[in-house]
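Quick one, tokens below:
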């Protein structure tokens, strides 16, 4: 994880959870994770189905940056797991890449869940954003239009990961033993990005 005083990377406007694109790239990469070959195949065949080469490059760059942060165990589960497991692994990748989103997940979503306050509002996000802006110039300097877009993307990610409903209510995460083990062997601190009462550390069945 990045140091607590490191600048925030706020460049998450390329897309939300990017499930389809991530699965295309992960499927090509396989467990070998040959990213150079993947880049060539994706761009040569327009496998992400973007309108322009520059758009393909931008989305591929973002997806690859996220997937590189997953452990080999997590990549294997992403390739062979259920859709809910895949969604949560992609949310984990997002939170690894963007400390701002990870801290929102922990400090707002998880905290509200533990207080049995299941509604997450735009106001909750704005309070969190403004608190970060007081101490981080890279947050404070964002244009209002960018702030609005980032907020929309964060909420869209949470919905696509099925952590929020369409009406922005928290959905408790019930991890499979396989997913819990994949998170635990990486860093148990990451359990806090999921609305759960306690980490589920049961080992996967063989």
């Amino acid at each position: 994880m990045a140091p607590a005083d490191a600048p925030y990377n706020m460049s998450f406007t390329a897309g939300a959870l990017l499930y389809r694109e991530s699965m295309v790239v992960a499927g090509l990469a396989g467990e070998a994770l040959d990213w150079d070959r993947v880049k060539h195949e994706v761009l040569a065949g327009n496998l992400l189905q973007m309108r322009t080469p520059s758009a393909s490059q931008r989305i591929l760059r973002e997806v690859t940056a996220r997937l590189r942060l997953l452990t080999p165990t997590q990549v294997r589960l992403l390739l062979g797991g259920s859709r809910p497991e895949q969604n949560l692994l992609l949310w984990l990748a997002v939170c690894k890449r963007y400390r701002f989103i990870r801290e929102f997940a922990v400090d707002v979503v998880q905290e509200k869940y533990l207080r049995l306050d299941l509604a997450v509002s735009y106001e909750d996000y704005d309070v969190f954003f403004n608190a970060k802006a007081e101490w981080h110039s890279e947050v404070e300097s964002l244009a209002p239009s960018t702030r609005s877009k980032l907020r929309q993307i964060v909420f869209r990610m949470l919905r696509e990961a099925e952590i929020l409903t369409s009406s922005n209510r928290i959905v408790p995460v019930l991890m499979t033993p396989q997913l819990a083990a994949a998170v635990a062997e990486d860093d148990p601190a990451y359990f806090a990005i999921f609305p759960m009462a306690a980490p589920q550390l049961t080992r996967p069945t063989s």
